[in-house]
Amino acid sequence: MKNRTHNGIMMLCFFLSGSLFSCQKQDTASPVTGDENLIDYPVQEPYVETQDNPPAGNTLDITATSFGTRKNLFFNFTTEATNSLTSWYGGSTTLWKYVAGWTSNSITRSSAFARSGSYSGRYELNKTDGDVGGSKRAETNRSITDEPVLKCERWYGISYFLPTEFVSDKAPEILMQWHTNGTYPPLALWTINGQWQIVQFGNITTKLGAYDKNKWTDFVYHIKWSTGSDGLVELWKNGVKVFTKSGATLKTTDTNIYMKAGIYKWPWKTGSYGSTTTKRVVYIDDVRIGNNLATYADVAPGP
Question: In 3D, which of 195, 206, 189 has the Cα closest to residue 284?
Fold first, then answer.
């Protein structure tokens, strides 16, 4: 299998498809706000991401649009299109901006499992893979120019399928993160020791419960990005609210908020930290981003 190149990474754009609706949410459980502490296991490695500038004229249009009954979306990825993970198409509401994987098998379109439709994205990372973007990762990215301003309100939806071989490991990995120009992402979703965790600024973590395997797990985020006290993060897992926190969601020095999904396991680069596995595979489907007018139902995974 041929390695991807271009400063160690081949960054590809892809083509997406999807649908939307307006509406209400379904949460009755009390939000989890406790169990927050500074982590005593490996903090995410500090690094500032650098990516190629977008091609001339390749700007992101974040004007909200409708996909079927879903409204107020500016990103809707479902993996159904045959070129969904292989095509360049800047400014699309239905494709990623970059693909960052070590080999052609790192990120692929798969019919093995699907949250909706017939396909999902299969992400594979091996401990023996070479560095991509300076570390161990198989990720799909939005553009670094995703958000024109720091203070904005967004809704995000995504679904994960963890197969049998996704065994519990002491060394964490990130399956979703929002990055800026800073050295740590302001928000990320981790798995570690068989648990989901939400982590802010690289080291403030809250447990979200054990992860299930061989079934889809849906996440919906409502985030008010802000460097001030008016910031907010709300998170639902499978329709139940599991996290709520008010306060700054960005550092005052942050710029260029953008989302990444896939597998990023930096301990395989910076030290083993007791890792007992050498391979990670995860399936991802129904990735959506809504603007400030969106609702839970607009971005929620599913057909």
Answer: 189
